[in-house]
Amino acid sequence: MELVTIFRAFNAVEAQLVRSRLDAANFHAVVTHELSALSMDGYALAVGGILVQVPAEEASEAKEFLKASDEPQA
User: Fold this and answer.
1) Residue 54: enclosing H or E segment and its boundaries?
2) Residue 22 burial by Cβ neighbours in a 10 Å radius (0-12, 13-18, 19+)
3) A single Pfam family, by name (predicted)?
4) Tens-digit pLDDT profile for residues 34-65
5) Which residues pair with 55 in a beta bridge?
6) What are the boundaries of each domain within the chain?
7) Cβ contacts of residue 4 below 8 Å, gap of 6+?
8) Rounded distance, CA 33 to CA 4, Å?
9) Which residues have C-beta within 8 Å of that of residue 13, sequence separation ≥ 6?
10) Distances (CA, A) of 8 to 13, 29, 72, 73, 74
């Protein structure tokens, strides 16, 4: 299964919040680079962030979900 990065965070809390929102919407999200970032100062910045990834077939819909859920509600 190919995973696609749909969100990058530079702290673990933000990455886990995004993963949790995706999980609640029935996406199969995972967080990568989190443990290394927590273990080594500066690691997340050096590798381009803590990654939130989903299977390739869910990527486009998951990106739209995040975009729509970040827009202010009228």
Assistant:
1) strand 50-55
2) buried
3) DUF2007
4) 867 766 676 665 667 899 999 999 999 999 99
5) 3
6) 3-70
7) 53, 54, 55, 56, 59
8) 14
9) none
10) 12, 13, 21, 24, 27
Residue 68 has pLDDT above 80, yes or no: yes
What's the pTM value of the predicted model, to 2 decimals? 0.82
| Per-residue CA distances from 62 to 15, 22, 44, 46 (Å) | 14, 7, 23, 26
Bridge partners, residue 53, by sequence: 5, 30
The first and second tokens of residue 8, run together, are 């990058």
Task: Report which residue type is found at 33.
Answer: H
Look at the block and give the residue holding tokens 């970032």: 37
Q: What is the pLDDT of residues 8-21, one digit of tens each?
A: 998 889 999 999 99
